[in-house]
Amino acid sequence: MSNRSWNIEELISIVRQVAKDELLPRFTKVTHSKKRDGSILTEADLAVQKTLERKLNHLDDSILFLSEEMTVEQQEAVLQQADKAVWILDPLDGTTNFAAGIPYYAVSLALLEHGQVSLGIVYDPERDECFVAEKGMGATLNGKPINKNDEAVLLKNAVACVDLKRLPETLAVKIVTQHPFRSQRSYGGVALDWCWLAMGRFDVYLHGKQNIWDYAAGQLIYSEAGGISCTLAGEPVFTQNLQPRSGVAAVTPNLFTEWTNWLGIKRAD
Fold first, then answer.
1. pLDDT tens track, the chain, 269 positions
2. String of DSSP letters for the chain
3. Of 11, 35, 58, 176, which has the highest C-beta tally within 10 A?
């Protein structure tokens, strides 16, 4: 958006403050319920959504709003207005972790403009780490640039972040039985996964099913930090619809090639 009535520092301040006010006091003290799809919902999710929606509308009421906690019909209606800018919010990425008292969760906010994510913010209140990216302008952590990783890493020596649960069964079995990397992790928070990958805390990444609010901000941050990614079908990860997407990534081009070759992925041109 070329004529913003607000600046990014103002937006970052809002996200940080809402997370500190609504999430930190509830951590380890919150009750939860289950949604129709079996996923967990806490009062913290709803509190962050309500407060952020109000503050973002005050910041710029011309931008539409899409959140995980909206109905599918509401989400689809927003995305169909292709000429409008849209905030894409996951008020609590890692809700299961939050409800269980595991300190790996974040607020994820992206701005969608003209069919592309132009801005992403992922804030981890536990570590006070705020990851930010604007398209074409690089990525930062707490205001300091995230530098492109140029370290040479072979797949056999890599630390992988892999969510086995959402992968095709044959692929999950292949990974478990052949384990092409040195070590594997899965922490349960997509937005932070992309940001940690951008920082080089993982070397390779694989997730079989991410929703648009899970990955929109984090994947932009990773890309702006110099990362390469695709889906298991070899397509770009981001798409402006509600269809869940897989995510495949690695911290360097050579490692990405080795990883996608092992997975048998042919990238689309």
1. 456 889 999 999 999 999 999 999 989 876 655 555 545 457 888 899 999 999 999 999 999 999 987 889 999 999 988 789 999 999 999 998 998 999 999 999 999 999 999 999 999 999 999 999 999 999 999 999 998 877 889 999 999 999 999 999 999 999 999 999 999 999 999 999 999 999 999 999 999 999 999 999 999 999 999 999 999 999 999 999 999 999 999 999 999 999 999 999 987 65
2. -TT-SS-HHHHHHHHHHHHHHHTGGGTTT--EEE-TTS-EEEHHHHHHHHHHHHHHHHH-TTSEEEETTS-HHHHHHHHT-TTS-EEEEEEEETHHHHHHT-S--EEEEEEEETTEEEEEEEEETTTTEEEEEETTS-EEETTEE-PPP-----GGG-EEEEEGGGS-HHHHHHHHHH--SSEEE--S-HHHHHHHHHTTS-SEEEEEEE-HHHHHHHHHHHHHTT-EEE-TTSS-S--SSSS-EEEEEESSHHHHHHHHHHHT-----
3. 11
Is 8-145 in CATH node 3.10.20.600?
Answer: no
At the second CATH level, the architecture of 155-263 is 3-Layer(aba) Sandwich (3.40)
Short-list 127, 141, 124, 149, CA closest to 221: 141
